[in-house]
C-alpha cells in the first residue's frame, strides 16, 4: 500500500514539475491559473535555491520508508534527473537550471504584464 502511495506522490511530483516548467503555455487569459503558476514558480525558486526540502519529496521519502524501501536522501531533481538524464552533471548546475527555468517563466509573465499595461 505504501509503495503505491509513494508512486502516486511521484506521479504528482512529476506533473507539478512539468506544470512549473511549461505552465505559461496554458495560462494566457486565465487569471486564476496564472496566479497559481506564478506562485509555483516562486515556490520552485525558493525550494531549489534555499535549504528547505519540497514537501512532496518529504512525503515520498516517508512513504518509501513505511514501505520498507530505502528512501533517497537528496532532493527530487537530483535523485531522479541526475540518475536518469544527467548522470555526471554537478548538483549546482541542475539547481541552477531549475532556477533558470523558473526565472524565464517569470520573465514571460513580466513581459505579458508590461504589454497589457502599456496598451
Strands, helices and their partners?
Elements: H1 2-22, H2 24-27, H3 31-49, H4 55-66, H5 76-84, H6 91-118
Give structural notes.
With 119 residues, this protein is mainly alpha-helical. The protein has helices at residues 2-22, 24-27, 31-49, 55-66, 76-84, 91-118. It has one domain (2-118). It is 78% helix and 0% strand. α1 (2-22) runs antiparallel to α4 (55-66) and α3 (31-49) runs antiparallel to α6 (91-118).
**Unreliable parts:** none
Task: Name the overall outline.
Answer: elongated
Distance between the termini: 55 Å
User: Helical amount among residues, as a percent range?
Assistant: over 70%
| Structural class by sheet pairing and helices | mainly alpha
Mean pLDDT across residues = 85
N-to-C order of helices and strands: HHHHHH
Q: Approximately how much beta-strand content do the residues carry?
A: under 5%
Oligomer classification: single chain
Task: Report the count of strand segments.
Answer: 0
What's the helix count? 6
- The count of domains is 1
**Main β sheet profile:** none
Amino acid at each position: 500500500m505504501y509503495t503505491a502511495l509513494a508512486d502516486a506522490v511521484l506521479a504528482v511530483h512529476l506533473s507539478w514539475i512539468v506544470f512549473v516548467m511549461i505552465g505559461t503555455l496554458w495560462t494566457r487569459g486565465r487569471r486564476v491559473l496564472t496566479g497559481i503558476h506564478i506562485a509555483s514558480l516562486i515556490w520552485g525558486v525558493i525550494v531549489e535555491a534555499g535549504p528547505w526540502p519540497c514537501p512532496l519529496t518529504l512525503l515520498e521519502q516517508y512513504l518509501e520508508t513505511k514501505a520498507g524501501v530505502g528512501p533517497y536522501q537528496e532532493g527530487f531533481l537530483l535523485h531522479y534527473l541526475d540518475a536518469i538524464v544527467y548522470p555526471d552533471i554537478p548538483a549546482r548546475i541542475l539547481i541552477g537550471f531549475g532556477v533558470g527555468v523558473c526565472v524565464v517563466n517569470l520573465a514571460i509573465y513580466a513581459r505579458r504584464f508590461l504589454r497589457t499595461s502599456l496598451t
